Structures are given as C-alpha cells and as structure tokens.
C-alpha cells in the first residue's frame, strides 16, 4: 500500500501562500539560506526594494548638499559695519534683522552671517564676545552697549556741534563726517539748518567768505567750500614759491643787497662808518660826497 502520510517539505519547497506575500519575506541572513536565494522571484523583489530605498536616500542627500551650497555661495548681506562714529548701529541692526527674516536664516547660522558683515574694530569686538549658541537678542543688547551707549552718543554730540574743521582737513572729509553724524544723532534736523551749522564750523577764512551763501544741497556745499579752500591755499604762496627758510629777512637789503633787514643796514645814515664796514654797493658814498644827491627814502617801519 502507498503511504498516505504527506511528504515533508524540502528546503527548496515554497508554498503558494508564500508566493502571494513576497513583501513579508525577510531578506537572507546568510549565504547558506538557500530557501530565499534559490527563489529568483523573491530575490528580485527584495533587490528592487533595496535599490529604490538607496536611490531615495541618495536623492535626499543630494538635495541637502545642494541646499547647503546654495546658502553658502548664493547670497550674503551687501552691507557692513566697522565701528566708525559716522555709522549708525541702529540702522545696521535693522538691516541685518530684515535680511535674516527675508532669507529665512536659522538661528544656528546667524552668528556666521554676523561675522561676515563686521570689519575692523567691530569684527575684533565680535570675536571676543561670540560664544556657541549666541542668540540674536543677546547679540543685539551687547552690540548697542558697545557702539551706541549714552556715553558714546554724548561724545559724538559734542563732536557734531563743537568740533571745527582742522587745518589740512579736506572739505569733503569734514562735511561728509558732519552729515553722517546728523543722520545718526539728529535725523529730524532740517537740511538748511544742518548746512548752516556745518558752515559755522569751517575754517575761519572759509567761514567769512561763505557768510550769507545759501547752499542748495550738501553736494553743492562741498563743491563751493572745496573751491574756496583751494583758492586760499594757492594765494598763501605767491607764484608757487615756498617761504624762505629760517627766520631771516625775506629779501636782500635795499641799500647794500646784504642778507639783513633794512633797519640794520650799516650803509644807512652812516652806520657803516661806526660798524667799520664799507657798503657793498658802489652806488653808496660817504655822506659828505652825496650832499648834492637827494636823500634815500626812509624805509617804512612795516618793512
């Protein structure tokens, strides 16, 4: 008789129910698992699933790298702050905060952007106070305390209204600095009032010449003042000749051509006889020999 006992499943046998659920079959755990590897359909399904997952992960990684490159290279703020008195710290903070909101910069990257916008004294200060996890409000408070405190504003106000133009300082530098301080410390001051305050602080000669002049704009004032000071500089040295060195007389003696003042000439009114030195010019003779000649004009006391 035939044995009706069902034959045991071989290691290579796969039931129909198993073939209808390929996604629930775990991947092979070793190279000896012939139950999975000997079934081409199941192996292909698992391989396709693995490849799709890897491609999706690679695509996401590529997208993140591209986003980081875009942030680092694409845009940076087009303004900066160095700590110069003419710069407005409040205006810098407003521009920086607006840029953060517009570009959606996360808080973790803000310190790096701040460092890129600071130069000179402000950059050195930030390197001292920058700490990991520096928050925006903390930076804002420390920044204003360093560059816009009450003491600093008091000094700048005194400089704005009381410091005159220094000799050698160009009109452009002086007027530009004053105008920037007005924008920072007294922005509500009318333009004509600003121009008059600046005019009063010009060099004395320039101030006298520009009295009563109505400037149309700050640029107009720069042009007029620069031209006046250029003319004054040319007039202070006639014919472009430098002044004589030392404290000696500016020209030779009119009586003997010597290098001394006219009042000290030994040939004047017989001084040469007492000095024991004859005059150097042949046009001079002793007093008794030139009685018939008209007396030389008496030099002015201003010579």
Automatic annotation (TrEMBL):
Region spans: Disordered:
1-37, 233-303
Composition bias, Polar residues:
1-14
> Where are the bilayer-spanning segments?
none
Record's compositionally biased regions (Pro residues): 240-252, 294-303
Name of the molecule in the record? Activity-regulated cytoskeleton-associated protein
